[in-house]
Amino acid sequence: MPITTCIFDAYGTLFDVAAAARQAASEPEFAAIKNDWQQLAEHWRQKQLNYSWLRAITSAHCDFWQVTQEGLDWALEKTGHDGDNALRERLLALYWELGAYPEVPAILQTLKAAGLNTGILSNGSPAMLRGAVDSAGIDGVLDALLSVESVGIFKPDARVYDMVRSEFGCSKKEVLFVSSNGWDAGAATGYGFTTAWVNRAGEPMDRLPWKPAHTLRDLTGIPELAGI
User: Fold this and answer.
1) 16 has catalytic annotation
2) Model confidence over 72-111: pLDDT tens digits?
3) Phi, psi (5° rounding) for residue 123?
4) DSSP SS3 for 209
5) Whether the Cβ atoms of residue 91 and residue 110 lie closer than 8 Å to each other
6) pTM greater than 0.85
7) In degrees, to the nearest 5, what angle opens at C-alpha 136 toward C-alphas 218 and 164?
8) HSE of 160 in the Cβ direction (CA atoms, 13 Å)?
9) Contact assessment for residue 164 and residue 111, using Cβ atoms and an 8 Å cutoff
10) Which residue of the set 9, 84, 134, 139 is catalytic?
11) What was the pLDDT predicted at 9?
12) Structural domains of the chain ordered from first start
């Protein structure tokens, strides 16, 4: 069955989650993180994900903005920057302005020009996703911004992936799901989607019951996988 619908994870897939720390580190007033912004960004992202999983399995849902703030607070303490309220506020402000990876606009335009449905399926809250999409200037090439807030649980719960079929009226086999998170792509494989893992950092494959159908270094191969 041909692919009719291409769905993308947001953070790390379309939007560069390290951009906030990188930008802050380049600003003179935040020179304190000039030498360890990468570690800060990595800790922030990992705790953000860890907290989403823990909240999902304990039925303690909150929106992703709260998780993002709590993950940052842990990362700031871990790297010795806790107590720097100006840095904290700057990093949080920058998270609403994350840039898209360079190839993203052209790839989305190619998919839309070919008549495919396109959308985001993300842990991000609706407001966070709208901010990122508007900042990146890619609103016109996305048909839907699907947030887990509609079902009240984070990925990889199957109810999140169900949202794609509900929105587009398609079968699982018509969906190409793209994520930079190996666990997300793997879980979506188990759900029944055709999947592509965008492994930008060259990470090892997650040891899970399911594996992504395809592994790419960036999004440039997505149109071919979609049959264009």
Assistant:
1) no
2) 999 999 999 999 999 999 999 999 999 999 999 999 999 9
3) -65, -20
4) coil
5) no
6) yes
7) 65
8) 24
9) no
10) 9
11) 98
12) 5-15+99-225 (3.40.50.1000), 19-95 (1.10.150.240)
